[in-house]
Amino acid sequence: MGNPTLAKLKHVVALGGGHGLGRAMSALSSLGSGLTGIVTTTDNGGSTGRIRLTQGGIAWGDTRTCLNQLVPERSIAAAMFEYRFSGRGELAGHNLGNLMLTALDDLSVRPLEAINLIRSLLKVEAQLIPMSEQPVDLQAEAAGGEIIYGEVAVDNLRELPIGLGLCPTVTATPEALEAISAADLILLGPGSFLTSLMPLLLLPDLTQALRQSRAPLIYIDNLGRELSVAAANLRLRQKLDLMERAIGGQQRIDGLILGPDSDAADARQRLAIQQPLAALDIPHHHDRVLLRDALEKLVSLVG
Question: Would you say residue 2 has pLDDT above 60?
């Protein structure tokens, strides 16, 4: 491919969860249906956690957050989807979008159908696929040997766990594997390292797809310090080692998008674009235009 550009790519796949994945996808929203997000589904906190506790099913919070950032125009449907109940009753704190996805999941054959119905309602062109359509939780083995269950508990660890896993063992959504197989470019991050990015890399069939893919894999590093103490203390080289160990391929990550505070010396001869990326309103969020510009530069190098 001579002089590759983002616009020339037929299929870009982004992996992650929550605000980070939504930010990356919204920066590339002009790709329309050529953009696919594979979303982490291990959240067990807040409104999502309460719904899972009482209704079961997969975690919807990260998918809802991504959809909110991909809505092309403000509408009554979009306002409803973002609405959060106040007060002190049973609905207090619940997000209507989570409840809508839960209801549509009950009415549908599979969770992916529920997401597609909401995409149609909100006029979101980019595709969103849950990493698995089976309910699953994150678990960790703490430094002292204790087994910690749930994303919230893992985020509260003070030290890096000696092991991470999924409970129970689940399979990746078939469409997620197909998207990776067809990808021209794969993005990973930004996002909470232990609870948004690593859960995806704990699915053996998904990591196998990443190993077999010939598409360049780009990691987008966070701009701010993570709230998780264990994750916040990780150096860039440690993150790369942990991700590539989980994927199972030596130096599978081809390129890096780094903010000014990242240690580029940890790139270890990978191609890297390092430049200011912070949004003016929330400095630890990536500015969409700056992020797209950085990705454009890196694609021209790794393609």
Answer: no
